[in-house]
Amino acid sequence: MDVRDTKLAIIGAGAVGTAIAYSSLIRGVARTIALLDIDAAKVTAEVLDMSHGLEFVPRADITGSDDVSVCADADVVVFTAGAKQKPGQSRLELAEATIGLTRAILPGVLEVAPNAIYLMVTNPVDIVTYAAQQISGLSPSRVFGSGTVLDSSRLRFLIAHHCGVAVQSVHSYIAGEHGDTEIPLWSSATIGGVPLTSWTPLPGRPALDAVARERIHHEVVHAAYTIIEGKGATNYAIGLASTRIVEAILTNEHRVLPVSTRADGIEGLDGVCLSLPTVVDRGGAQTRLDVPLSDSERAGLVASATTLRGMQARFGL
Question: Residue by residue, what is the 3-state secondary structure of the chain?
Answer without folding.
Answer: CCHHHCEEEEECCCHHHHHHHHHHHHHCCCCEEEEECCCHHHHHHHHHHHHCCHHHCCCCEEEEECCHHHHCCCCEEEECCCCCCCCCCCHHHHHHHHHHHHHHHHHHHHHHCCCCEEEECCCCHHHHHHHHHHHHCCCCCCEEECCCHHHHHHHHHHHHHHHCCCHHHEECCEEECCCCCCEECHHHCEECCEEHHHCCCCCCCCCCCHHHHHHHHHHHHHHHHHHHHHHCCCCHHHHHHHHHHHHHHHCCCCEEECCEEECCCCCCCCCCEEECCEEEECCEEEEECCCCCCHHHHHHHHHHHHHHHHHHHHCCC
